[in-house]
Amino acid sequence: MRQFLTVVVFTLLTIGFFAGYSNFGIPQIEPAPPPKEEKLDLGSMTMDGFIALGERLFNGKGTCTLCHNALGRAPELATVGEVAAGRLKDPRYEGEAGTVEEYLTESLIDPSAFVVIGFGKKGTNDTESPMPNVASGGIGMSVAEVAAVVAYLQDSSGAEVTVEIPQDIGAQEDDGEEDESEPREAIGDPKELMALFTCDACHMIGGEGGEVGPDLTQIGASRDRDYLRRAILDPNADIAEGFEEDMMPEDMGEAMYVAELEILLDYLAGLK
Fold first, then answer.
1. pLDDT tens across 236-247, in order?
2. How far apart are CA 225 and CA 177, in angstroms?
């Protein structure tokens, strides 16, 4: 009996040790909180601050650098302030802008008003842009944010900054959102997940979305879960035909919970 009790006690101590180590000894990994709507105090913001805001939006929330980069997936923007005036006079221009500022704003919310030759959707003869409306969908920029990006584009391209900081919108009040340093709550809806990570900026599903990445409308009919998981966690492991490396962010695995990944995989695998 004494030997039996010794074995029981040893077993319980061993289990307790490993349980404690797994809970407290191993660092707990939480996905990084997603970008949140920046609270803007437009009333006290300087133009330099407004331009800096536009730069952060361009490189972050707007996902602009996924296409406007050295790989040439979208038009070069380094001289956009200079070339915009010429585009307004182009016979192909179908928009309503009359100034460079209006053209840049229009290009963000109605990209098909003028499509640079060679950058249109396949089969449209450069009459339709693959770029999404940044004020809708998963990106969802506000009027002030669009204006900030336009100010940044003017400044970074060496053009005169004509944008005025919107004052009639007013300062955004603290709405009681939890601190950005706190882990976000897990999401159980695959469509909400895809909106959170702005998948529709590059991928099309059912005729809606971008064409920078592969069409996912029937992806489940041709790809299994292992392929889909690898495509999300290590997007450069297998490059779809007709596309290039480095087109998709490589940190998706760090940005979502494991349970969210499985929910997303179930959704994608069911698209047949």
1. 888 888 887 777
2. 35
